[in-house]
Amino acid sequence: MAFSRMLAVAVLAALVVGAMCTKVDLTVEKGSDAKKLVLNIKYTRPGDTLAEVELRQHGSEEWEPMTKKGNLWEVKSAKPLTGPMNFRFMSKGGMKNVFDEVIPTAFKIGTTYTPEYN
Questions:
Q1: For 92, phi and psi rounded to 5 degrees?
Q2: What is the DSSP string of the chain?
Q3: Rounded Cα distance, 88 and 64, in Å
Q4: Which pTM value belongs to this model?
Q5: Quick check: 73 and 66 in contact, CB under 8 A?
Q6: Nearest one of 76, 80, 79 to 66, comparing CA atoms
Q7: In this predicted model, what pLDDT tens digit does every residue of 24-63 receive, in sequence order?
Q8: Where on the phi/psi map is residue 105: left (φ > 0), alpha (ψ -120 to 50), or beta?
């Protein structure tokens, strides 16, 4: 029984440390405009890569999937995008992260936004 508790604590500690070692930078790329966001996402977690990225606009409850095209991730909207925008990531290794209020409505092409960890 004590061994299983120790194992559970060790696994939880590894997950917390793994999350803290993950660095994410989102750079707004050419092709972005009021209704389209194109991002170059630098996700640095040793041995892992991004599998899914979703965006939630300010005031919305809906997560919109972003499409990967080469090294870029993009989302298109029928209406102008409303910031600050939130992002949810799922890595191929199973790591999940949510970052709130990362990119403002008035984003600038070439600007890199780095979310803060809570």
A1: -65, -25
A2: -HHHHHHHHHHHHHHHHHHHT-EEEEEE-TT-BTTEEEEEEEEE-TT--EEEEEEE-TT----EEPEEETTEEEEE-SS---SSEEEEEEETTS-EEEEEEEE-TT--TT-EE-PPP-
A3: 10
A4: 0.79
A5: yes
A6: 76
A7: 999 999 999 999 999 999 998 888 899 999 999 999 999 9
A8: alpha
